[in-house]
Amino acid sequence: MTSEESSTGKVIPVRVAVRLRPLSVREIREGCQESIDITHDSPQVSYNVTVLAYGQTGSGKTHTMGTAYVPGIENSEGAGIIPRAVQDIFEGVASQADNEYLVKISFIELYKETLFDLLAGKNNREECVVDIREDPRGGIKIVGVTEIPVTSMQETMRCLEQGALHRATGATAMNAHSSRSHAIFSMHVEQRNTKKGGSVVSAKFHMVDLAGSERAKKTGATGERFREGVNINRGLLALGNVISALCEEGGRGHIPYRDSKLTRLLQDSLGGNSHTVMVACVSPADSNLEESLSTLRYADRARKIKNKPIINRDPQAAELAKLRQQVMQLQVQLLASNNGTGGTVVSSSEEDAEMYGKMRGPAVR
Fold first, then answer.
1. Residue 143 Cα distances to 132, 206, 287, angstroms
2. 274 marked as binding residue
3. DSSP state, residue 257
4. Is the pLDDT of residue 143 over 80?
5. Would the annotation count 57 as a binding residue?
6. What is the pLDDT of residue 357?
7. pLDDT of 148 higher than 80
8. Least confident stretch, 10-19, 170-179, 269-278, 296-305
9. Distance, C-alpha 56 to centroid of its chain
10. Which end of the chain has less Cβ packing within 10 Å, N or C?
11. Is 59 annotated as a binding residue?
12. Residue 260 counted as an annotated binding residue
């Protein structure tokens, strides 16, 4: 998609990809057979602004996203989406000689409807709690979240590794390192064009690793693990209700974004200002067939959602550019009305004066 299309707010659908992991050692030991086939050589199209991994617990979401970062894995085939995206972003920044860039990252988790800042660097977990507020300019903002400026992939990966250590995980019968929270790793990239009046555009890249949907009978969860699973499923149910509401025929009615903090956090990603990709992670085992079908139905509904992404420009810089354009238009009109009779034009800048001089040609004496 070109920048011209994005600037007009063209409506685009949420993109959906399906990732099928191999049978796990446990599934092979239990005699599970593969129940899902893959059609190869099918075209796949994705945009990386919000990338959302959804699926049953143990289906490979954290591995796919690369949230549980292991140093050195970014150069291997097993690298997740986050290391790959970070590398692409910094390679793109290095290739843009006419622009200056500021890149900041944040890393948060939603655990039992409480939002924690994973980069706060505090020993007391309760001191890492942050909250969601409405942004007067539209959407939501996270008050008090740590945003760390980074200048390289290595710095970014160290922050990801540090944050991942503080994320809530636990063992269940289906996953020895089950994520017990939803995690969002974000990069805020601000671009300033040094040759066009310092115009500023910005973008946020959200990489979302959702906790997996669970059935207590399969996970064997009890006590605290059971309560965690209840909260996980409640948030995913609210997300499903938002997706269903956005897919309803005949226009949009009430969209229940406020039913959970998860849906509020993803408000721009679903039906808002974002290019969004959902990666549906499924298990091939026949013992998980029901959950795999549920995930695929979930993803099928998500691809019917229409987003309307726009270019995010700094309002002051955009207004200044607009005024400069108006000045240029007035100069052209004045030049035409003078018809080369030597009328005086007052320029807003030396650059404008030089441009007008070229347009006008030698002065009439």
1. 6, 17, 43
2. no
3. G
4. yes
5. yes
6. 47
7. yes
8. 170-179
9. 21
10. C
11. yes
12. no
Tell me if 251 sits within 8 A of 123, measured CB to CB.
no
Cα–Cα distance for residue pair 35/58, rounded to 1 Å? 16
Residue count (the chain): 365
E strands, 157-254, in order: 169-170, 178-179, 182-193, 200-209
Say whether pLDDT at 41 is over 60: no
For residue 348, give both structure tokens: 């807003």
| Whole-angstrom Cα Rg for the chain | 25
DSSP 133-145: EE-TTSSEEEET-
Mean per-residue pLDDT over the chain, rounded: 80
Could you tell me the pLDDT band of residue 251, with boundaries at 50, 70 and 90? low
**DSSP secondary structure, 183-198, as one string:** EEEEEEEEEEETTTTT
CA–centroid distance for 73 within its chain = 22
Please provide the DSSP assignment of 101-112 as one string: EEEEEEEEEEET
**Token pair in block for residue 228:** 């965690």
* Helix-strand-coil split of the chain, %, nearest 5: 40, 25, 40
> What whole-number distance in Å separates Cα of residue 26 and Cα of residue 171?
14
> Is 196 one of the annotated binding-site residues?
no
Q: Band of the pLDDT at 20, cuts 50, 70, 90?
A: confident
Q: Residue 281: what are its φ and ψ, rounded to 5°?
A: -95, 125
Which residue, chain included where needed, has tokens 């969860």?
221
Q: Supply the pLDDT for residue 142.
A: 92
Which tokens is 13 given? 């659908």
Tokens of 356: 């007008």
Q: Which of 38, 32, 83 has the alpha carbon at shortest distance from 58?
A: 32
pTM across the whole model: 0.75
d(CA 94, CA 260): 39
The letter for the amino acid at 250 is: G
DSSP 161: H
Between 289-302 and 223-247, two packed helices, what is the crossing angle to 10 degrees? 40
Strand partners, 188: 104, 204
Ligand-binding site membership of 316 (annotated): no
The torsion of the CA quartet 217, 220, 221, 223, rounded to 10 degrees, works out to: 110
Per-residue model confidence (pLDDT) at position 314: 66
Residue 272 in marked binding region:
no
Q: Is position 240 annotated in a ligand binding site?
A: no
Question: Would you give the end-to-end CA distance of the chain in angstroms?
Answer: 51
Q: Residue holding tokens 């590398």?
A: 87
Q: Is pLDDT at 170 greater than 70 in this prediction? A: no
